[in-house]
Amino acid sequence: MGAWTSYTPSLFGVVLGSGTNIGYYQKIGKTVHYRAKVTLAANSSITGVIYVSPPTTDQNDTSSPIGLATLKNVNGAFYTGWLRQDGAIYIAGDNGVWTGTSATYPFTWETGDIIIVSGTYEAA
After folding, report:
1. What count of other Cβ atoms lies within 10 Å of the Cβ of residue 121?
2. I need a surface site. Which of 20, 49, 63, 106 has the fewest CB within 10 A?
């Protein structure tokens, strides 16, 4: 089994400020298992669709997501969705349509909110 290696995911749509951003991955052959957690601080903000990069380039299979996403609000609300290959997080809306995150969707972001992604994919 391969050892877990730390990585810092690239973030887009997130101004992290003094928040935290840490990830870990394990590569066995061409299989990559990963997990990452982003915690917002008082000087953090969400500026659009959230992108959290996976640790390595994937096989570019555009037909399926490469991970799951959990968005947790400090007030107790949480939403699950999926991570596209480009790192974009999408959440199922009330109408069943998958929608990208924003400064106010799926909730208004605040200090202590958490973004967690994890998954498995085939490396390029």
Report:
1. 24
2. 63
pLDDT tens across 50-87, in order?
Answer: 999 889 877 666 556 888 999 999 999 989 988 887 77
Query: What CA–CA distance (Å, rounded) separates 71 from 76?
Result: 10
CA quadruple 95, 97, 102, 108: dihedral sign: positive
Residue 84 near residue 99 (C-beta atoms within 8 A): no
| Secondary structure (3-state) at 113 | coil
* pLDDT, position 24: 97
Burial classification of residue 81, based on how many CB atoms lie within 10 Å of its CB (0-12 exposed, 13-18 middle, 19 or more buried) = buried
In angstroms, rounded to a whole number, what is the distance separating the alpha carbons of residues 18 and 28?
33
Sign of CA dihedral 63, 72, 105, 36: negative
Give the pairing type, strands 78-83 and 67-72: antiparallel
**Residue keyed to tokens 């391969």:** 2
